[in-house]
Description:
alpha+beta, 7-stranded mixed sheet, 10 helices, globular, N-acetyltransferase activity, transferase, Amioglycoside_AcTrfase
Amino acid sequence: MTTAPVVELTCDQLADQLRALGLGPTTGVLLVHAGLRELGPVAGGSAAVLAALRSVLGPGGTLVAYTATPENSATSRLHRQATAGLSAAERTAYLAAMPPFDPAASPCSTTVGRLSEELRRTPGARRSAHPQTSFAALGPLAGQLLADHPYHCHLGERSPLGALYRAGARVLLLGAPLTSCTAFHLAEYRVPEPPQKRYGAVVGGRGWVRFDGVDLDDAHFPAMLADILPGLGVRTAPVGGTTALLLPLRPAVDAATAWLRGRQGPSRGVWPNH
């Protein structure tokens, strides 16, 4: 039995499929989460995918990607996995050797995908200054969207997510699951007394810094999405080897906020499945 050869998409073909999904010059601001393995082969790789998106949005559009560095942390899941089983001396040495975050040079985590790194490295891209949850953007609104990102506000109102909400952005899931949509974390800041956590990160020119912030958790995303998905106005279309999803960010965050508020425990700050 023979298998059909895998056909590479060209940049122009990918752009046409993205237009069929509903993207175009009137989209304005777009947050993209991509899984290029699921998308399938594209001639030119991640650079061609980025070029297709920019072509579809046009010169007036602004493309945003999550360029997080959760490895640069003393508390993240990735950090705990990397340091599991280390002795006290080994852990001290590991922490001392961690490279400090530099928004101009630090590569984003492999967990957020090759497209995010491609965008970050593109000449003219801007990046927010958060040492754990940065975003990068290309386009006329890049500076405005990324200007404010204090340490205590990973993914809240004063992060690029808050700016994307106010800008009426859309979200594209291109080979990435809806559970990976970072925008839903903004809802966790919009409930009374969200749970807090002490964070730490190593920053260029400052060394280790400690700060408090909302205890972010995506464990509730599957249950939440099962309830709110029908009302999100999600558009779907085949793009490459996957089904791409396009949704408006603001209604999605509003629905997630209402869902979380309706399920907070009596002690507050308690999500289901936490």
